[in-house]
Structure to design on (886 residues):
């Protein structure tokens, strides 16, 4: 009996105690949930620490970990996912960055960050700034490709030309207003034979960032913004250097035909890079105002088309947490819940529902507390006794423990009747059973 | 104060929700248990994932893990345990397999499996088929030893002659009716220096399997079976290639004098290979109709004889699960419970009781959900508050967490007052403390 699997990630779902709500946003709304509570009532439940307890993961590392990839050797760096999320492809040896158009102010030798998003600069302005900067890069004959994506965001790709490149370099973005833009440098522990490549890469990206300030700070559109009292987009600040690694495809790794439904570019990037098939959904934006109905229909469509693993990602929960909107987060969870009904009526199905990490709507950032998780199956399984889904109940009724990212797929696969016995091996292929502790075991 | 330890494994004890029973078989019967509930009432309890959560272990890997051996480096392969279970001994360089006499049908180039047990072929028929096939192997001058054991089962040992052998080859048994018998191949990740040996081994076993079909399919006894409407035993299908590894003996590893009581050959094989002393019990068959009274008496005898660790294995719970007999499984647990009374009256004793894995009596196969476990001690310890032993209660009253196989021995040893403080080392011998993470620690 092979069941199909739907894996739902509500980004940044977990949270901490919010005084006004007398609990977390999920706890605040948990009794009002209908469909998610239907799932947890017939499901196992517990807590998930995607990387480890106390470690706040980035979304890309959390997803990769839950999909069963070994972060220690297989994580290619954030920039790679961003590039794939934008539909770009990386060639061997290229280094990709995510960047922001930011607002800086010159103080002595330093460029001090005043706004990390240049006032969430409008698309056409940002687009034009980047287009014009492309010309400058060309004039300087620099081996680089640069793309504006949405608002203040973009992707930058360095190409090997004057020697090999390396992604083992530090971010230029200090991630904090009031701090200076940093010089990128090779990681301290970079091995000797890669150090020169890392230095070459850091020098190149440092030069590009300096150029971007010199050019953008004098740009007509930025002068205009200042006149309008808006922060100028007068520098590009890259982070998350990454290089494509050889990742075994998700389908090959787990023996399933996998599809995904997502709005946010990062999640598309992760899913594309591991070879999941994309189910495009009009209006799936990765924002709070997204097409939830369409996304759930996308999942049903994928199942109808014969995909036996479907990953559904919803971003809004995380965005509202970053903006410290606890009550709105609770309301958004309720809204998601209303759209999940069709999934609760499926037969021969396993549904996993969790977050990729907790995001504190008190602090507006990722935190390392575990996330509630449920594993529903329409028949069999082992109901935990929980009647409502929340951080509190997933601790109280916990019947699987505090699991880690790499435990998620084995649990889903096992409930779907798709795991081989550990110790048997009918195929010569390497069978990865990744245990709770991130150690790949192969027999 | 050094207490004695009895470790009871009810094979495949854990299960999943069975609609007719409104719970698992153990949950269905848990309130009626007398002696096991006496143990859990004075014991710690929790959940055990013998390998990792979501991973369905084979019985041999689960036992080895619970006994504190590192599967990643010390697992010799199933065939080795089967051989030792039958009282055979392996020499260095030999590769052992377990095999089934099965029923196949030729379709084009494929041999499609129709019955994985040739209708649980009768002992004398199977015996004769194998005896006659031995002659064929001799005529072909193949370096192989072959033994019939029980019903459709047997053991096959390849001997090095034309070069070294390697157990790093895949199973020929697809473990599924309707699938073709597979060609054995070297594991994808076999290191270069072992690849040639693995190829040699795969070629040899593939040749033997082909020969077995050619010879057995035309055998008079099989023609007779077909005439009687019975499936013929017309091929041998090996699996679980293994080579003896250097395993430190259990007694040396844990500093106890260890004995075992078991009926099933596989469990005898595991216990013999790690050097436990066998307490033979007449009528201990490893079947549902086994001598439970005699087995418990065997445990008492071992304790009387000065063994301070006794492993008691009961197989029937797993067999009934594979046969999807949920209610019978519940009844068998009740029957076992009735025989455990003498153990509850022992002084200076620690008793662990669990399963080596969950076996779903809904699906008839091993699953990766954790198994309930209890740790009883007649004095001290830390009672969990549970009054009845079940999956549900071991989650609800859990006071040790979801532990892994390698946590079992330290917990038993510690409750028995037999653990050294981590950090102290009164003996020059290597002391293995195997932690929750499957990583052997030595100080």
């Amino acid at each position: 009996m092979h069941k199909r699997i739907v894996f739902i990630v509500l980004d940044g779902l977990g949270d901490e105690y919010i005084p006004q709500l007398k609990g977390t946003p999920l706890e605040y709304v948990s009794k009002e949930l209908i469909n998610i509570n239907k799932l947890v009532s017939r499901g196992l439940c517990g807590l998930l620490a995607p990387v480890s307890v106390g470690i706040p993961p980035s979304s890309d590392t959390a997803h990769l970990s839950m999909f069963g990839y070994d972060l220690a050797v297989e994580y290619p760096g954030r920039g790679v996912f961003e590039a794939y999320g934008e539909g770009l492809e990386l060639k061997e040896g290229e280094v990709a960055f995510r960047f922001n158009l930011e607002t800086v102010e010159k103080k002595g030798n330093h460029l001090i960050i005043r706004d990390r998003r240049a006032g969430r600069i409008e698309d056409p302005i940002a687009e034009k700034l980047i287009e014009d900067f492309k010309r400058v890069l060309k004039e300087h004959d620099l081996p680089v490709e640069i793309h504006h994506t949405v608002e203040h965001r973009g992707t930058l790709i360095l190409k090997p030309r004057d020697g090999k490149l390396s992604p083992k370099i530090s971010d230029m973005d200090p991630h904090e207003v009031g701090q200076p833009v940093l010089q990128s440098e090779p990681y301290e522990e970079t091995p000797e034979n890669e150090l020169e490549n890392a230095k070459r890469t850091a020098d190149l990206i440092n030069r590009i960032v300096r150029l971007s300030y010199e050019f953008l700070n004098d740009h007509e559109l930025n002068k205009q913004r200042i006149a309008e009292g808006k922060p100028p987009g007068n520098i590009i600040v890259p982070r998350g250097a990454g290089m494509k690694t050889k990742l075994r495809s998700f389908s090959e790794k787990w023996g399933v035909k996998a599809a995904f439904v997502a709005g946010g570019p990062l999640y598309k990037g992760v899913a594309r890079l591991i070879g999941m098939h994309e189910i495009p959904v009009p209006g799936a934006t990765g924002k709070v105002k997204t097409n939830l109905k369409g996304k759930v229909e996308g999942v049903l469509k994928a199942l109808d088309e014969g995909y036996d693993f479907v990953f559904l990602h919803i971003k809004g929960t995380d965005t509202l947490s970053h903006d410290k909107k606890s009550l709105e987060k609770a309301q958004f969870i309720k809204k998601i819940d209303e759209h999940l009904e069709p999934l609760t009526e499926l037969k021969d199905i396993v549904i996993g529902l969790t977050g990729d990490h907790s995001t504190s709507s008190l602090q507006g950032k990722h935190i390392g507390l575990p996330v509630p998780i449920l594993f529903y199956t329409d028949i069999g399984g082992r109901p935990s006794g929980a009647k409502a889904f929340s951080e509190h109940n997933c601790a109280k009724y916990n019947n699987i423990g505090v699991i880690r990212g790499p435990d998620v797929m084995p649990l889903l696969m096992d409930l779907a009747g798709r795991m081989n016995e550990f110790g048997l091996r009918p195929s010569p292929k390497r069978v990865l059973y990744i245990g709770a502790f991130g150690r790949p075991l192969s027999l």
Q: What stands out?
A: The mean pLDDT of chain A is 93. Residues 123 and 406 of chain A are 38 Å apart (CA to CA).
